[in-house]
Structures are given as C-alpha cells and as structure tokens.
C-alpha cells in the first residue's frame, strides 16, 4: 500500500510528456475523479484524435512517421487537404478514440474500471498486470487501459500522390466527426458510470472495509446505453513519440 | 482447480459457433499447444481477416450489418469490386488482425501469455478478470485476449455509391495483403515465444511447483523481432454474430 502511494506521489509530481500539455478536457476530469482516490493513479490518456500521418519506407513498418495533422475535436476537410499536400510518402488518415490508462493498487480496482469501461462501449479495454505482480503478492500494480474498436485507418496517398478525390475526403471527415461525437458520448457514459461505481464501492481510504457503505447511488452493470451529447474542446499537441500505448513500459521496473 | 478443469472439459466438448468451422490454421496449432496444458483453455480466435461490410442506418451505430466479403488469406481486387457492387448502404473495408482468447486458470498464466503476446507485436493484448474473480479467491478465471492495433477501416461506399476509384481499391488490397503478411509473421513469433515460455515455466501439471524445472529453453523477454514469412491457409466462414469479442460474455456466470 505504501509503495503504491509513494509511486503515485512521484508520478503526479514529475513533469511527464503527457502532462506538458493541458490534458484533454474529459481526461482531465476523469483524472481528477480517480486521483482523488488512493487506489488509482492516472497515466497517459487522450480524449480521441484525428491524425494524418506521412510514412516513408517500404512495407508496413512505421519508419520515419511524420505527423501532418492532429486534432482532438471536429476535423475540417480543408485542413486535411492542406496536410495531404505536404505528404511525400504514404499518408494515412486515422481516427483514434478515447484511450485512458490507470495504475490501480489492487486487481479489484482495475476490475471496477474495466466493468464500467466495457459497459460504456469501450469493449477493447483490458487489464495488464506488471511483471512484478504475482497473485500471491499483496497489492500488485495493475493497469487498466480503456480502449475501443471504434476507429478509422485509411490510406490516402502513395509516394506523395493522393489516391482519392476531394469529395472522398469530405465524406471521410464527416464520418470521423460522427465517430468523435459517439466517442464523446461514450466518455461521458464512462464518467457517469465511474462516479456511480466509485460511490457504491468500498471507499478505498477507510481503515476497516467491512462492507459497502450505504449509498443511494448503486452502480448496476448495465447493457443499455444512455446517450448524452457533448463536444470535446481540447487543444493539445502530441508528438509522435507520445504514444499512450508506450506507457506499458511503466512495468519495466526494478 | 477442479472447477477450471470441469469448465474446460465442458467447453472443449460442446459444439460452439467458432468450432463449427475448422479453426484457422495458426489458431488451431496454438489451441493444441495451449489446451494440452491444464492451465489454459482456448476460446474464440481468428488468424486475421479482410471484410467488406455493408451497413444501413444513420450515424455510426452498426445497424443491419451485412457481410459482402470475408477472407482469411490474400484478398483480391476483383473480389472486392464484386462485393462492392452488392452494397446498398455504407460499405466499409476492414482488415482485422489476429485475435485470440484464452481462459487461464491463474493470473500468472494470463501474464505469461500477455508477456509473449506483447513481445510478438500484439501490443493491445490485455487481461480480463471475471467478475467472480477476486484477488483473495483461489484460482480466479482470467482471460487473455491477444490483440493488435495493426488494422484498416476504410469507408468505401455511401448509400450504395462507390466513393473511390478501382485504382484505389487495388492500392488498398495491396496494403491489406502486406498487413496480413506482417500479421502472420507476428503469429509465428507468438507461437515460438509461447513454446519457449511454456517450456521454461513451472509445468502446470506437476504436483509440487517448488521451482522451475531445468530447461535448455529459456524464454527471455525480448524486444527484437524475428521475421519468418508464413502464409495463412484458412478456409472458414464466420457469421456476423460470431464476433470474437463477444466471448467476454463468458464472464456472465453465476
């Protein structure tokens, strides 16, 4: 327990790439909600983004990957066209939905997040248990990554030559924006579900967890979706190397 | 322990949708390798596939999704063109890489799979712990899903109208085939890594796991990739409802 608290304090104190820039609006709120509890420590995250990447090199290995465009909100056809004019290799348009990583003190804490994430539509969410963590060990550090299958990956240029029409780009941008809206609805669902689940769970900071505290809010594992529209309002730049997935390297610990 | 063994016997005995058809070649070999061990029970899997889907309905909810084409090997432009002629809604071309689900008796078994999966390039792999599984419970049933980010999702038609040229389809098919080749290389890497890791681990069927048996094969968590080319040779049809991800419902247990 003390080890986790120490580690959390260190992480939150240090300047780290995903904190140089203001967190995306939704991720920031979720971070506040979770970091207020002892059992969670948020790590890298992204509300969702549209990217235009230019890749040189043969095959499908990501060699010399350059970012021509990144936006965390609505994307606009003209911006995409402008970005593509700068492409010299194989340009790809990508929509990446919400990604959220959380270090959890106990496996059951990760399970709580996982349950809410899946209910919210983030079906690819999963738990990673650090190599130091064995089931017999008290408080293994676990890691919950919230992910979705709800993406786009569209090759657009080949050796600098645009392979689609402007009309297609307009069509694609429209679809990406729809996906972003649905993505935001899911994040909102996740946030609400998390609030309920945390209130209903045994509070992490009580000394004697004899049983769940009485609460009027009960999180019920539900399949039905609520739909609340909300628009993301981010303005953050991410460098290519700030790949949220690289946070799995956190487990390369002594 | 006995509960897991019983559950495994039941699963492997019953006819289940993903077994109606011959398992993809690679998945079948991996299943043989893992099911020979007490601690693992393979579930749904797919070597990887190219799909052309037709979806009707507004927005991005998957309403009335029809499969126009599915292939688990090399895809051919003419087949894609033929499939698209049948589209009446919004057709999408998808490449989905290797997906592999394994029920594990212990968390450490899932961790072993996870480690090998990530080393093999399947970076989106994760562990799910069933709701019945608490950290204090002996032998929680955990679930390792092997996944990758290495996909394509490309809208091609809008209300039945093709939005790209035949040349673009050719370009896309070429990219999909390259991704499938890389996918197969990763599966092979995963298989080899798994063989080493299983040999090095404490054998699951010994009664007294005092320590790792001496072995000449030692699995070292490695970052370098080996590249072995191998062609998938599958012939399996999957219905839309046979979504490997729906196997997460396995955890809706009493």
TrEMBL record, chains A, B:
| Region Disordered: start-end pairs | 207-254
Q: Which intervals hold domain tRNA wybutosine-synthesizing protein? A: 12-195
Q: Which UniProt keywords apply?
A: Methyltransferase, S-adenosyl-L-methionine, Transferase, tRNA processing
Could you list the residue ranges forming a coiled coil in this record? none
Pathway noted in the entry: tRNA modification; wybutosine-tRNA(Phe) biosynthesis
Q: Recorded E.C. number(s)?
A: 2.1.1.282
- Show the Pfam families listed in the entry: TYW3
Skewed-composition ranges (Basic and acidic residues): 228-239
The answer to keyword tRNA processing applying to this record is yes
Output the InterPro entries linked to this UniProt entry: tRNA_yW-synthesising, tRNA_yW-synthesising-like_sf
Catalysed reaction per UniProt? 4-demethyl-7-[(3S)-3-amino-3-carboxypropyl]wyosine(37) in tRNA(Phe) + S-adenosyl-L-methionine = 7-[(3S)-3-amino-3-carboxypropyl]wyosine(37) in tRNA(Phe) + S-adenosyl-L-homocysteine + H(+)
Annotated family = Belongs to the TYW3 family.
Q: Could you tell me what this protein does?
A: Probable S-adenosyl-L-methionine-dependent methyltransferase that acts as a component of the wybutosine biosynthesis pathway. Wybutosine is a hyper modified guanosine with a tricyclic base found at the 3'-position adjacent to the anticodon of eukaryotic phenylalanine tRNA.
Query: What is the name of this protein?
Result: tRNA wybutosine-synthesizing protein 3 homolog
Q: Which gene encodes it?
A: TYW3
């Amino acid at each position: 327990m003390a080890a986790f608290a120490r580690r959390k304090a260190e992480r939150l104190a240090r300047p780290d790439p995903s904190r140089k820039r203001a967190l995306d609006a939704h991720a920031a709120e979720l971070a506040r909600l979770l970091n207020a509890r002892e059992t969670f420590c948020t790590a890298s995250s992204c509300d969702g983004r549209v990217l235009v990447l230019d890749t040189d090199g043969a095959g499908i290995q990501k060699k010399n990957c350059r970012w021509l465009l990144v936006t965390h909100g609505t994307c606009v056809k003209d911006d995409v066209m402008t970005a593509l004019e700068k492409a010299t290799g194989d340009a790809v348009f990508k929509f990446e939905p919400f990604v959220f990583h959380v270090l959890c003190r106990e496996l059951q804490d990760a399970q709580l997040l996982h349950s809410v994430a899946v209910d919210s539509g983030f079906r690819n969410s999963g738990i990673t248990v650090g190599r130091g963590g064995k089931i017999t060990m008290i408080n293994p550090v676990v890691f919950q990554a919230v992910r979705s299958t709800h993406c786009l990956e569209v090759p657009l240029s080949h050796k600098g030559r645009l392979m689609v029409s402007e009309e297609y780009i307009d069509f694609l941008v429209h679809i990406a924006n729809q996906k972003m809206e649905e993505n935001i609805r899911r994040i909102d669902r996740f946030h609400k579900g998390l609030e309920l689940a945390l209130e209903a769970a045994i509070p992490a900071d009580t000394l004697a967890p004899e049983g769940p505290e009485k609460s009027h809010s009960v999180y019920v594992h539900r399949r039905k979706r609520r739909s609340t529209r909300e628009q993301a309002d981010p303005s953050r730049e991410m460098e290519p190397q700030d790949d949220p997935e690289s946070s799995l390297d956190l487990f390369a610990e002594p």
